[in-house]
Amino acid sequence: MAFRGRRWIQTSSVRLSPVHLLILVLLKKKPAHGYMIMQGLRENLDGWALKSGTVYPALHRLVELGFIEGEEVEQDDRPDAIVYRLTSNGQKMLAEALKGLDSELRVQDSLWGFLGRTVSASDRKALLKWATRERSPMGFVVMRGHCASGKCAPSNLDFLQKYREYLQQELDWIDAQLARLKSSKDK
After folding, report:
1. Distance between CA atoms of 124 and 161, rounded to whole angstroms?
2. 115-166: per-residue pLDDT in tens?
3. Greatest distance between any 2 Cα atoms in the chain
4. Domain map of the chain by residue range?
5. CATH number for the domain formed by residue range(s) 9-95
6. DSSP conformational letter for 62
7. Neighbouring-strand partners of residue 31
8. pLDDT per residue over 86-104, tens digit each?
9. What's the mean pLDDT in 161-179?
10. Alpha-carbon distance 163 to 174, whole Å?
11. Smallest Cα–Cα separation from 24: which of 109, 104, 116, 94?
């Protein structure tokens, strides 16, 4: 999956890109060097891979802003690594950014609902096709708004069936994770 476009998360003092935010979230869990950060992002984002040319400049910017700090660590048989950790300013900024993200998601929910209720049938079909392909929760919001306005029709059956299959796969995954966690807790 590729990163498309550039969205910024605005806080009271600085704008953070999604890459900055992802790095801060990952470093909140534990300190890590750049390669570990790229691996952690790939593992947590269903294979979405960021290149070093994206991650390292973002790390340098976060250091400049004082949100993270790096410490050089010697490694046997390999070049030294810089291990990054979140600073107290970084923790505060992350909390503020996540609050802002919550309100942005509510705005997006309203926007997609509005689009679903007001765009032409061909545009709505294109939106739903994209949402189905990308498995976007916004597709569900569009369809819900469309049906709530009394415009749901048999032609929407395909989208609803595909989305139900997708949600069932997600629920199956959640059930497996819950079972794994319960099993490890019982040991």
Report:
1. 17
2. 667 777 777 677 666 666 666 666 676 677 777 778 787 877 777 787 788 7
3. 66
4. 9-95, 119-186
5. 1.10.10.10
6. H
7. none
8. 999 999 988 888 877 777 6
9. 82
10. 16
11. 94
